[in-house]
Amino acid sequence: MLETQAKVLLKKYYGYDDFREGQKNLIDNILKGKDVLGIMPTGAGKSICYQIPALLFEGITLVISPLISLMKDQVDTLNEMGIQAAFINSSLSDSEFRHIITNVRKNTYKLIYIAPERLETEFFSQFIQSLNVSMIAIDEAHCISQWGHDFRPSYRNISKAIENLRNQPIIAAFTATATPQVKEDIIRLLNLVQPYTLTTGFDRQNLYFEVSNPEDKFSELSTYIKNNKSKSGIIYASTRKTVESICKKLNKKGYTAAQYHAGLSEKERTKNQDEFLCDNVQIMVATNAFGMGIDKSNIAYVIHYNMPKNMESYYQEAGRAGRDGGEAECILFYSPADIITNRLLIENSNDPSKKKNDYHKLNEMSSYCNTDRCLRGYILEYFGEVDSTNKCGNCGNCNNDVKATDVTVEAQKIISCIKRMGERFGSVLVAEVLKGSKNNKVITMGFDKLTTYGIMKDYSKESIKDIIAYLIAEDYLILSGQQYPVLKVSSKSTGILKGKEPLLIKRVIKTKEEKNDKKQLRSDKAYDTDLFDNLRMLRKEMATHQKVPPFVVFSDVTLKEMCRHYPRDEEALMGISGVGAAKLEKYGNQFIEAIQDYMKDKDITILEQSLENETVEKQPKKRIQKESNQDSKVISYEMFQKGLGIEEIAKERELKAMTIENHLVECAHLGMTLDYNRLIHPDEEKQVLEALKVVDGNKLKPIKESLPDHISYGTIKFVKAKKAYNQS
């Protein structure tokens, strides 16, 4: 029964007809009272897995979340859907805090979001002991493990706080990335009791992956943004200095960009993040301090200006793109110098085992940047999945020619030069000597007399330094010293010097035609872009009025579906994915009117078919006959007459169940006989007939609201059709 109610709530509040992969299994196990651990990629819908059970439990659910901004976004979203939720954190004033505590005592909320540190305060730890806590949901659960990429010591105290509660609640832990070691830590350190664990596929098919080796990173970045200037994106850089430089240059070029790093005040960080969430700025330039748990759903691209330190960080950060299921791009600008930067950071650690682990992960990250195989396959294999295809068709390596450039001779020259210079200098001076520079230091130290002086005069200094960085990354050279690192030759370089081992560096070759093919491959399904712009402006107005980010009103994916199907009434709008009852009530009329006005203004008529196959005609004053719709109705009717159920017909025809219901109702209006015993439960029929006696008018929504949640719009339509035509 609870499982059935869960699906009803999914449609009522979230506007979705079906659960995504893994959601139903996790929800079912939570509702059975089991602890769970869900490892699901960003954008897979982890929050629904604990939010829906929270609505069905008698007590409240505490959600432990690491970031204030994430709490606010989640609570805003829930409240917009008609679900009572609140957060308790340091951003609240004393009066706001007291107001929420009072409402908690009155059982006003179903979900309370808190930071893990809140459990350590004496007042709150005593306060929750007086509450009926049905479940504790732990977001970003990997933070509990020192082997995770975002270790947070306060997560270690969660289990102790849970033990002090009078009743032991269900524990539901969730994370986007977890190695077997991290998974084991989560179960052990949270004291999960025989948990149901589920790892959904890590494959985000809507994400396009690419590794680029630009000679001029900012030039390539600028070109990319110019081609995607109407879209929201994140640019990650490794240092504050780089973040500030990129942000300044982008704003100078006329783009709207904000920055985020630990050197800014909390007030500045919050302001910049809010500007980004509310679409007031299109681009966020940030260090990895930004984004854990960021809930903005319409991020169209994530660009890593520098290589991250490990695959876990990269995949989580890249995964902030396309959370709404729309097509998105994840591009990594790779330079071997990034490996040197990361190695210096690793060397600052005093823990030998952590240092060893970090080096191993850095090597994996480097291999990803240099592989010529499918990038998606590499990611899936790293996270323990078997890649069933050699080519995904949606990554840079699959869509472009990957050429291995032989730089063995260049490497021999560089290694020889380092040896002749006594292995006492850094890459800058080595490059100067190889280039044949006449600067004072080179001449004074007599390096112009070396046989290697000027033997790479036709190469740019940057190219020489890139090859040096690659040699360091692959352990042919060693960086020694910290403040002023010098280059030393490793024993591994012997094979290169003797010509026994070739050195190949990956280069991606893109032709104009290939670029166009790639773009076509990743383009969204066709939708009315002019209407999309109109609806996006309306959404912004609604969001500003409600004081929430625009994506909380409707996601871009939901707007695009509206722009494909042109819903002209409440029932049609409810058929759009992402439109639930509360949002229909709050925003439905405005969006329907905007669509109707647009269609009237543009003289758009619709060739009525099913919702999935609607055809748009932009012809002034011309009405289009509905012959194909009649054919479609008849096909559905004939399949029903042969004994197939609505879900079976929908699956076979690749249509929504609601579309099939509409087909059958329209056939009833045409006088065709239906076996209503297969469509309506007797008890539900009685309840609908009673509602029809007291609810005035023909609109379905008031009737639906007067009935229990489990009675669907389809049932109401069938009862009305049966009553109208006196069929049995």
From TrEMBL:
Keyword check for Nucleotide-binding: yes
Record-level Gene Ontology MF annotations: 3'-5' DNA helicase activity; ATP binding; DNA binding; four-way junction helicase activity; hydrolase activity; metal ion binding
Alphabetized Pfam families for the sequence: DEAD, Helicase_C, HRDC, HTH_40, RecQ_Zn_bind, RQC
Known cofactor(s): Mg(2+); Zn(2+)
Limits of the Helicase C-terminal domain: 217-366
CDD domains linked: DEXHc_RecQ, SF2_C_RecQ
Record EC number: 5.6.2.4
Domain Helicase ATP-binding per the UniProt entry, residue ranges: 27-196
GO cellular component, one term: cytoplasm
InterPro entries: DEAD/DEAH_box_helicase_dom (IPR011545), DNA_helicase_ATP-dep_RecQ (IPR004589), DNA_helicase_ATP-dep_RecQ_bac (IPR006293), Helicase_ATP-bd (IPR014001), Helicase_C-like (IPR001650), Helicase_HTH (IPR029491), HRDC-like_sf (IPR010997), HRDC_dom (IPR002121)
Catalytic activity: Couples ATP hydrolysis with the unwinding of duplex DNA by translocating in the 3'-5' direction
Keywords recorded for this protein, A-Z: ATP-binding, DNA damage, DNA recombination, DNA repair, DNA-binding, Helicase, Hydrolase, Isomerase, Metal-binding, Nucleotide-binding, Zinc
Domain (HRDC): residue spans on this chain: 525-605
GO biological process: DNA recombination; DNA repair; DNA replication; SOS response
Protein family per UniProt: Belongs to the helicase family. RecQ subfamily.
Protein name according to UniProt: DNA helicase RecQ
